[in-house]
Known about the structure:
The protein is of the alpha+beta class. The chain has helices spanning 6-17, 143-153; strands at 23-27, 36-43, 52-53, 61-67, 70-75, 81-87, 95-98, 103-108, 113-120, 130-131.
Amino acid sequence: MIKIDKALLESVSAEAVNSPRKRKNYNFHPEYSDPLQRMLNAIEPWSYIQPHKHENPDKVEAFVVLKGRLLVLEFDNNGTVIDWILIDPSQGSYGAEIPPKRFHMIIALEPGTMVYEIKNGPYHPINDKNWAPWAPREGEAGTTEYIRALLTGLDLDSPAPEKG
């Protein structure tokens, strides 16, 4: 039995805080070849995950928030937001599922946000994600401004300003 408890969440969250990318995965699947990928994803505000989709092979991806607040966005092929949900268990919103071939991204809105993520496998780093050409790449200039523009466009409050 795999147990998901407070100690595990705190440990993974501490690794995310101390990571340069401000996020950390903790995989439950034993191999990247596993047909069902299951993981904890600890994400801090301002950690940037470039919009992407899963196709060829097509994959469904689901997010369930265990702690914190998470914004999940879906985009059309031109980068326009077509749907979104603010997942906040304290407000009765728990998760979202993204169909294959749909551009999406997630943004943590609270420190210590912890997501249980499920995705079809296998995982191959070379073709797991199809990156959105209209969004900045991770590590490029403009990622903070891109996140801020998305939040402003949805009339959502930004988390505390990024330090650094």
